[in-house]
Amino acid sequence: MLLPLKIKDKKIDVPIIQGGMGIGVSLYPLARAVAAEGGVGVISSAAIDRLLSKRNKKKYNTYEAVYEEISLAKSEGGVVGINIMVALGRHYEDSVRGAVDAGADMIISGAGLPMSLPSIAKPKHTALIPIVSSARALKIICKRWQRQGYRPDAAVLEGPLAGGHLGFQWEQLNLEENLLENLLPPVKDVARQYGDFPIIVAGGIYTNEDIKRFLALGADGVQMGTRFLGTIESSATPEYKAALLRAKRDDIIVATKPGSPCGLPIRLIKQSPMYQEALVRGRPPKCDKGYVLTKDEEGRYTRCPARESNESHFCICNGLLSSAGYNPDKEKPLYTVGANAYRVDRLMSVHELMNELKGVTSPPAVESAKL
Ligand SMILES: Cc1cc2nc3c(=O)[nH]c(=O)nc-3n(C[C@H](O)[C@H](O)[C@H](O)COP(=O)(O)O)c2cc1C
């Protein structure tokens, strides 16, 4: 039995947070299903305006899209959050406001340090949860939030085995000190200094045994991405799911050059068509989506390294949008996964997966021949 997790005023029956997966992998069908099983279902705010505009054939802005998706995810009860990446600067504040107004149970925010999160909108009953990869980063955030009169309601500690962008430089990825179990104690110490809030660990957690091991080490809960990517309810395209099922251990790489224009290493299936195209520089630079634009000297959002040159970067907006089924005929997809993705050998329903993770049913037989 896994013990329940308490965050702010919320009791979470199963201490499993389904990690936010952008673009468009964790939308309301997945989040609602996880929430119904007693875990935390999390939608991703990334490019959600475009995804809902396409889905419903009417124009949404970010605030409206976030509001609607959270309302749908909450429609059958349970605890529902949203993942909002700091790297998506242009839409960050609107996403936060939409989430708070829609009554999201939590905002989980990383891919950069969410320094001003408590000041964007009065959080009311929404828990504010930063994602960090070190005790140092958590301390910086706690100090900054304290000046805004707020303390984290919990924090996610994400280690180097996670899917998506990673909070480590390439050369730090394999250091002993960066193993999730070694990162945890100093992060717990920081949490204790600032009100003893819960620490949720993420990155490479795969089985009920893994969950129990981290809870025994002092974690209060876990966040898992890759296992939920491989569910029937995730909104990845059939091609993305097929690539996940095919992936062998050697197919999973951390890309830096060509890499993400966000400037962070990102874990990918190396056969991802957008990555392969970037290797041969097959796609001329073009930036027509602009979610990861940063500000120029005049404070306008105009800068993205993938906009100027395709020497070192792929176009992450179009690559990930394509893997969510948006414009797949025009742009090639990019498949991000966690380090354990090679272990996924069949798609499961969320119900079946949650039963396995809770320890109600047995895990799958020893890893398949894909190794
Ligand atoms: C397909 C995919 C997309 C992801 N997208 C995001 C994202 O948009 N924002 C984010 O903070 N984390 C993202 N992540 C990280 C997950 O939320 C989670 O923390 C991580 O995958 C945990 O590691 P695991 O995949 O080994 O379980 C993504 C992970 C995957 C697999």
Report on the architecture of this protein.
- The chain folds into 2 domains: 5-236 and 344-358, Aldolase class I (TIM Barrel); 238-323, no CATH class.
- The mean pLDDT is 95.
- The longest helix is centred in the middle third of the chain and has 14 residues, at 180-193.
- It is 33% helix and 15% strand.
- An 8-stranded parallel beta sheet has the order 3-11-10-8-7-6-5-4. Strands 9-13-12 form a 3-stranded antiparallel beta sheet, with no helix packed on it. It has a two-stranded antiparallel ribbon with strand order 1-2.
- It is an alpha/beta fold and 371 residues long.
- It is globular.
- The chain contains 14 helices and 15 strands.
- Bound molecules: flavin mononucleotide (FMN).
- Flavin mononucleotide (FMN) is lined by residues 19-22, 25, 44, 46, 83, 85, 110-111, 131, 158, 161-164, 202-205, 223-226, 229, 336-338, 340.
What's the SSE blueprint?
Elements (H helix, E strand, L loop, with lengths): L4 E3 L2 E3 L3 E3 L9 H9 L3 E5 L3 H9 L5 H12 L5 E5 L8 H10 L4 E4 L7 H4 L6 E6 L2 H13 L7 E4 L5 E2 L14 H14 L5 E4 L5 H9 L4 E4 L1 H4 L8 H9 L5 E4 L10 E4 L3 H7 L14 E2 L5 E3 L1 H4 L7 H8 L26 H9 L13
Helix pairs in contact: 1-3, 2-3, 3-4, 6-7
What's the number of helices? 14
CA(first)-CA(last) distance: 30 Å
Mean pLDDT: 95
What is the CATH superfamily label of the largest domain?
Aldolase class I
Taken together, the total number of domains comes to 2
Biggest pleated sheet: 8 strands, parallel
Shape: globular
Radius of gyration from CA coordinates: 19 Å
